[in-house]
Task: inverse folding
């Protein structure tokens, strides 16, 4: 195929919607194979998160590399503990006074499917006293272009405001708690003072409906059983 520009066309296709940065070099720093691995396996792209490092590995390439840049690939493995450092996110907002809010559940599902971290809709009073809504979506920088596109496509917005903010979150995971109503999912959150358990609504709702018991009874059962299990 002759001489091709760098990055190669295949790399550009694979890295669509993923943040990249150029360098002054005539060497191929990202191969199609490497780009495919990042695009397929990475949940997000950005600085290394706060973590306890458990292992580090290196792989050396065949080409000599460039001055000041060794031809090495490094992988750092570890586990995330209670997060005490801020994470950088993008906050995207728009104010709407001519949009049917019945579409919000559909839009919310689409935004979360596109890896938005949070979505909310708040009532506001707009100019000339008209009632309206403020739509807010929080996401990582890598997902911001798609989030903005979805908002433009699914609402009456003709403009967006966006800014970079810091946020702090606690480590959490979804666990399954064995109860007398069957297995029920809950969220296990690691707080500085200890572990907290939050029953998952959808799972509790299904258990309550199938056993014809009050929803609150299932909630209390999940919390009790999880405490007994430690």
Result:
């Amino acid at each position: 195929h002759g001489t091709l520009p760098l990055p190669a066309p295949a790399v550009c296709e694979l890295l669509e919607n993923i943040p990249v940065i150029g360098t002054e070099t005539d060497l191929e720093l990202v191969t199609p194979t490497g780009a495919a691995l990042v695009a397929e396996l990475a949940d997000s792209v950005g600085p290394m998160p706060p973590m306890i490092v458990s292992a580090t590995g290196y792989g050396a390439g065949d080409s000599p590399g460039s001055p000041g840049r060794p031809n090495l690939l490094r992988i750092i493995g570890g586990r995330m503990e209670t997060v005490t450092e801020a994470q950088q996110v993008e906050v995207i907002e728009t104010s709407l006074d001519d949009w049917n809010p019945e579409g919000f559940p559909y839009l919310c599902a689409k935004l979360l499917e596109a890896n938005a971290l949070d979505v909310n809709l708040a009532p506001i009073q707009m100019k000339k006293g008209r009632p309206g809504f403020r739509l807010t979506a929080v996401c990582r920088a890598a997902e911001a272009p798609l989030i903005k596109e979805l908002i433009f496509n699914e609402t009456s917005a003709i403009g967006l405001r966006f800014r970079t903010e810091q946020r702090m979150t606690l480590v959490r995971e979804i666990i399954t708690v064995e109860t007398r109503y069957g297995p029920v999912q809950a969220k296990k959150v690691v707080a500085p003072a200890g572990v907290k358990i939050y029953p998952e609504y959808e799972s509790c709702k299904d258990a309550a409906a199938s056993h014809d018991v009050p929803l609150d009874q299932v909630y209390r059962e999940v919390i009790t059983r999880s405490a007994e299990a430690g």
Q: What stands out?
A: The longest strand covers residues 87-96. The mean pLDDT is 88. DSSP finds six helices and nine strands in the chain.
